[in-house]
Fold this sequence. Notes:
The chain is mainly alpha-helical. It is about 70% helix and about 5% strand.
Amino acid sequence: MIETNQIVINTCLLAGRIMIENGSEMSRAEDTMKRIAMNSGVNNLKIFGTITGIIVSIPNSMDSQVEGINRRAIDLEKVSAVNTFSRRYAAKDITLEEFYEKLNTLDEATPSFPFWLQVIGAALVSGPLMTAFSGNMVDLGITTLTGALGYTLFYFVNRILNIKYISEFFASIIIGIIAVFAVRWGWGHSIDDIIIGSLMPLVPGVPLTNAVRDILNGHLVSGPARGIEALLSACAIGFGIAFVFRFL
Length: 248
């Protein structure tokens, strides 16, 4: 029984960590962990989760464990995969041990989208969205190109420094510089529209949304923490654009 409890705890912790690391709101991660435990015969699993760590224990036993969360990214495909495995486990299609192995494989998997596809996605988010909201067809091309270049710089700087805020700062500087000179040289019409559209791939939409959802669900530690994280990203982007306007 002790060994079974430990497997349940390990599986719940791994599932919760994968979900939180890859952009899930806290309530969804905790619900998934509780469902895994219930389907394993543990109906009273106790969970304390934040965006930096998870504590799980089984009452009336000596089994408990802490799992640290050291990184945060946005990969909702992994979140969906964890939920899919959980449903398969609930339907008895896979055993608990198989579930745990699948989670380990998922945890070690690299992002499924290659860099070139991410750049294309950033480009499509930039130009078309700017045109949809502003009706500015003139700057569609330059905004699409600027968004792709800004995201490219963000990607490579983040791989080197592994500090998201600095990467966003430098990417926003490049976006601002391109927008200013594009209008000065007659390649664009509106600096504001080009900048706003090009920054769309960098905007921390998921962390901000999760912050609101966590707060509404009563997670008064994780919610404000996610909000501060989103605010820091917004400040990094804003400081980069302000830097360009100050000196150009």
